[in-house]
Design goal:
This protein has two domains: about 10-145, no CATH class; about 150-390, no CATH class. The protein is built from 18 helices and three strands. The protein has helices at about 10-35, 35-55, 55-70, 75-80, 85-110, 115-140, 150-155, 165-180, 200-205, 210-215, 235-240, 260-275, 280-295, 300-320, 320-330, 335-350, 355-370, 380-390; strands at about 230, 245-250, 255. It has a three-stranded mixed β-sheet with strand order 1-3-2. A hairpin with a 4-residue loop joins strand 2 and strand 3 (about 255). Helix 13 (about 280-295) packs across helix 14 (about 300-320) and helix 13 packs across helix 18. The longest helix is centred in the N-terminal third of the chain and has 29 residues, at about 115-140. The chain starts with 10 loop residues before the first helix and ends in a 6-residue tail after the last helix.
Length: about 400
């Protein structure tokens, strides 16, 4: 009779070790899965906040004026210390980090079967954390601002349908202001408005705050810390996308294309600063740029505000009454016509598929944020300009 077989050395221990490894792997997978829960709870809180603020614009107004205004101050202060665009500096590293994380997720499926899920979950968690951070900063610093009360309500500037004649009268008023200011400004060799060459870009960006300081004396929502807009080093190449400026909500930074015509650059500075001050809608940011421009103590910013409003107004007039538009254009002085033509010539050289696609993307983004007119909302600032002049008693109600 054969005796009981004795297991080979190590066989029992190896089985126990394998079972232990399987159990530990499952526990690790469970821990990784549970680590996603806090983020989901936070995202749920952000979405709930969005839903509540979308139903109560007065709550969104309080959030924007008092909570968001203080949350954003550290970033605004940090940006004021840096003479360069932090957005532009971090764009390439951020893209590389994202690419590496995506590649890491892809290659995790090449790992041994026992480690494949764990590595994939780790890669997903890293992407998940970045997504949560980006969404949080966007909503807290910019997204919720789309839900605040319209400026037409908070500034008591009711917007209503206007006659072509009223639009024409406002355009004439804008043209007269712009023409008077244009006589005080320097020109280049082609007779086009030029900036003072003795002033640096940093000095120009800092000087833009004088318009906000002046406007805040009567419009409290425009008060706040000093904002230093940033010029983009790759501005010329940026023009191929048709972009004059961009507010980066994740960094609370106003970025400006410094390659465009001087009057457009000045107006863009004021426009992007409006986003930093909590004005999200594009037509309202343009209107704030207009208000802070005409209140600015210096004629170059004033001129940029009046000329930009005139361009938006004349474009609207052209759609509704080409005869009145022709009458308006014939009385615009040559100096203003040269500046307007210089804008057109500048942008003509950058037309192409890149600009078209970028405009489509921006259009979709604006519509997703409740701006139904998309990229055409920029020009709707003229409705607020008309209401502003009517409230001032400068033009008759039409």
């Amino acid at each position: 009779m054969r005796g009981e077989e004795v297991p080979a050395p190590g066989v029992g221990r190896s089985r126990k070790k394998a079972g232990y490894g399987l159990s530990a792997g499952r526990r690790q997978i469970r821990r990784l899965g549970l680590s996603f829960i806090p983020g989901l709870v936070w995202l749920g809180f952000l979405v709930l906040g969005y839903q509540l603020l979308s139903r109560h614009s007065d709550w969104a107004e309080v959030y924007s004026r008092y909570i968001r205004a203080w949350l954003i101050r550290p970033l605004v202060w940090l940006n004021s210390l840096l003479p360069f665009s932090l957005t532009e500096l971090l764009l390439l590293p951020a893209a590389l980090i994202l690419l590496c994380l995506l590649l890491r997720l892809l290659f995790s499926w090449l790992a041994p079967a026992g480690r494949r899920v764990i590595r994939a979950l780790r890669s997903l968690r890293a992407l998940y954390i970045l997504l949560i951070i980006a969404m949080s900063l966007y909503l807290l610093f910019h997204g919720y601002n789309f839900l605040r009360q319209p400026l037409s309500e908070s500034l008591d500037l009711p917007v209503q349908a206007q006659s072509s004649q009223t639009l024409y009268d406002v355009c004439v008023l804008l043209e007269q202001h712009a023409a008077a200011l244009r006589e005080q400004l320097p020109e280049d060799q082609d007779g086009v408005f030029a900036l003072d060459t003795s002033e640096t870009q940093a000095q120009l960006f800092k000087r833009a705050n004088l318009g906000y300081e002046a406007a805040a004396q009567t419009i409290s929502i425009l008060s706040g810390p000093t904002v230093l807009a940033k010029g983009v080093w790759l501005s010329h190449w940026w023009s191929y996308t048709g972009t004059t400026g961009m507010f980066m909500p994740l960094l609370a930074e106003a970025n400006v294309n410094t390659d465009v015509q001087p009057d457009e650059e000045l107006f863009t500075i004021l426009h992007e600063m409006a986003h930093v001050h909590g004005i999200a809608r594009e037509d309202e940011a343009n209107f704030v740029a207009f208000l802070t421009g005409i209140d600015h103590p210096d004629p170059d910013f004033q001129y940029a505000a009046y000329l930009s409003a005139l361009i938006h107004g004349s474009n609207s007039l052209y759609k509704y009454d080409k005869d009145l538009w022709q009458q308006l254009w014939e009385q615009i002085p040559d100096s203003l016509q040269r500046d307007i033509q210089a804008r057109n010539v500048y942008w003509d050289q950058f037309e192409g598929p890149v600009q078209t696609q970028t405009q489509k993307t921006n259009d979709s983004f604006l519509k997703a944020n409740r701006q139904e007119s998309g990229i055409h909302s920029y020009g709707q600032m003229i409705d607020l300009v008309i209401s502003y002049y009517q409230k001032q008693g400068v033009i008759d109600l039409g």
